[in-house]
Structures are given as structure tokens and as C-alpha cells.
């Protein structure tokens, strides 16, 4: 499973936005078990009540790659997901991929980096 955490004043709307995108691919995200949110050094001075978070899980198969032709197809999905994360950032929300040992801001990744991160997580389990 791929875990995505949405953080910001309107995390719920951000989650719905990504859910609509993944639903168009035939995958529906589900609420993930609550976890301790990753600490962000850039949140100093922000009212913690103003920041809400939402954690959802999406099947890794959505972006898991079997062969080169499949990678080209999944790269488009990864690009769309990253583009949505960049749009959310402009709306004061962040979408982060929660990995086993860290979380990564989706808006900062390239499609290939996202596919590689998912492949690494899948091979670790």
C-alpha cells in the first residue's frame, strides 16, 4: 500500500482531490490507520489546530511497474499525481508520501523518483 498524508488547513479537500484523480484510474483510496504525523520544521509559529491531517492508503498497484511499456503508462499517472500535489501546495496543503523511514513531499518528486520509491517500498515488504 502507498500511504499519502495530507497536511494543511484544508487537508480533507486535498484528500478528496487526490481521491478523485485516483478514482479516474480505477483505484479508490481508503482511510489509513492514524499515525504520528512527520514533524515539519517549517510549521513553527503556526497554530496546530489550523493544521489538520488526513492519511489515506492507495494500492501500490496503481503505480507499480511490471515492464518498460507499463512504466511509460504508470509514469503518466505519477506525473498527474505530482501535478495535483503541486496544485495543492499552491492552496496551502501538502501531500506527502509516507515511506517506512521518512515522508517525502510529492510536489518535489519527478515521476521516475516516485515510481522508484514505490518499487523500493514494495520490494522491502
Mean pLDDT: 78
Main sheet, how many strands, which sense, barrel? 5 strands, antiparallel
- The helix content is 40-55%
The percent range for strand residues is: 15-25%
Task: Write structural notes for this entry.
The protein is α+β, with helices and mostly antiparallel strands. Helices cover 40% and strands 20% of the residues. It has three helices and five strands. The chain has a five-stranded antiparallel sheet, covered by helices on one side. The protein starts with a strand and ends with a helix.
Describe the structure using short key phrases.
alpha+beta, 5-stranded antiparallel sheet, 125 residues, 40% helix
Mind sketching the topology for me?
Layout: E1 2-8, H1 11-23, E2 30-31, E3 52-58, H2 68-90, E4 93-98, E5 103-105, H3 111-124
Antiparallel strand pairs: 1-3, 1-4, 2-3, 4-5
Helix pairs in contact: 1-2, 2-3
Amino acid at each position: 500500500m502507498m500511504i499519502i498524508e495530507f497536511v494543511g488547513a484544508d487537508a480533507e479537500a486535498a484528500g478528496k482531490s487526490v481521491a478523485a484523480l485516483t478514482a479516474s484510474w480505477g483505484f479508490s483510496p481508503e482511510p489509513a490507520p492514524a499515525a504520528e504525523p512527520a514533524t515539519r520544521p517549517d510549521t513553527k509559529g503556526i497554530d496546530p489546530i489550523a493544521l489538520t491531517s488526513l492519511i489515506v492508503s492507495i494500492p501500490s498497484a496503481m503505480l507499480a511497474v511490471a515492464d518498460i511499456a507499463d512504466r511509460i503508462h504508470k509514469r503518466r499517472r505519477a506525473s498527474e499525481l505530482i501535478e495535483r500535489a503541486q496544485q495543492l501546495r499552491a492552496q496551502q496543503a501538502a501531500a506527502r508520501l509516507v515511506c517506512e523511514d521518512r515522508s517525502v513531499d510529492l510536489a518535489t518528486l519527478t515521476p521516475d523518483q516516485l515510481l522508484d520509491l514505490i518499487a523500493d517500498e514494495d520490494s522491502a515488504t
